[in-house]
Amino acid sequence: MGLPHNLQREQILPSERAWAYRMKLEAMSHQGRKLRDSVSGSAASVGEADGVSDRTVQRWIRLTYLIPELLQLVDEGKLKHEQGVRLSYDTEDEQRDFYKRKKICLEKGLSVIGMQDGSKPKPVFYQVSLPQGIWQRYFKPETKIREVESVIEQALEAWFAKGGGGIG
Question: Would residue 121 count as lying in a domain?
């Protein structure tokens, strides 16, 4: 038995497909199947009827373990299916934290390194360049770039050691 006719349409939301597979799997497990006919076996039966693998069915079902806000992002295409599957293994609190960060990024049109694969953001390292006209006011033309970098680093360390700037 395949998915109900209205779920076989091409433009089905990921959440609809996920819940349809989950309900079908739960219905099959209540039909007197033995324990050895595990979720994997049942998923294989569901998948076979719909022409997909048991792993595909299991991945779709994992989406039902997302908080509603993340599942909506999957439906809207703002979070990839694979990302949703990975996030579904996180606790509800971890998912809510991720959603808050993702929402901020979406509102500001930003992308955060690390969020594209569903993982928590990794530290971002920036390379800052100082226009030549600025640093040449303080260094002789023959000063090597390594020396310039060293002096700037020492100056920054001294500045922040004094509590200067209030940045960071």
Answer: no
Under a CB-based contact definition with an 8 Å cutoff, are residues 96 and 118 in contact? Answer: no
Rounded Cα–Cα distance for residues 17 and 34 (Å): 26
Measured from the Cβ of residue 99, the count of other Cβ atoms closer than 10 Å reads 19
Q: Tell me if 120 is assigned to some domain.
A: no
Max alpha carbon distance in the chain (Å)?
Answer: 86
Backbone dihedral angles phi then psi of residue 29, each to the nearest 5 degrees: -70, -15
> Which of 47, 53, 8 minimizes the C-alpha distance to 25?
47
User: For residue 24, what are the CA distances in angstroms to 41, 57, 134?
Assistant: 13, 10, 67
| CA end-to-end span of the chain | 59
pLDDT tens series, the chain, 168 aa = 445 544 455 689 999 999 999 998 888 777 655 534 455 568 888 888 788 888 999 999 999 999 999 999 999 998 999 999 999 999 999 999 999 988 888 887 776 554 545 555 555 666 777 888 888 899 998 988 888 888 988 888 888 888 776 554
Same domain, residue pair 150 and 166: yes
